[in-house]
Amino acid sequence: MFKQINKQEMKKGIIKLSSLTTGKSAVIIEFEKDDLHIKLMEMGCVPGETVKIEKIAPLGDPISIMVAGYNLSLRKTEADHIWVEEI
């Protein structure tokens, strides 16, 4: 679950959740290794789950995502820890 994303994988469309724009959807691939991943998983952000960017605040923080059937607000720094593949 915790591996380093290399440049080849980034070319395949694996990016940070924080870099998606409003209306885009992606599948969670993995998390960066830290204690935040437990909190995110408890909120429904698990690998394989589809997320959609619903809204982004005018100043870019926080962002609202749809995950596991409900809306969740994340700080941009939290979204920086989630690697996704855009669909």
From TrEMBL:
Gene Ontology MF terms in the entry: transition metal ion binding
InterPro entries in alphabetical order: Fe-transptr_FeoA-like (IPR007167), FeoA (IPR052713), FeoA_core_dom (IPR038157), Transcriptional_repressor_C (IPR008988)
Keywords: Iron
Keyword Iron applies: yes
Residue ranges occupied by any Ferrous iron transporter FeoA-like domain in the UniProt entry: 15-86
Gene3D superfamilies on file: 2.30.30.90
The keyword Iron appears for this protein: yes
Listed PANTHER family: FE(2+) TRANSPORT PROTEIN A
Protein name, entry field: Ferrous iron transport protein A
Native organism: Chitinophaga polysaccharea
Lineage: Bacteria, Pseudomonadati, Bacteroidota, Chitinophagia, Chitinophagales
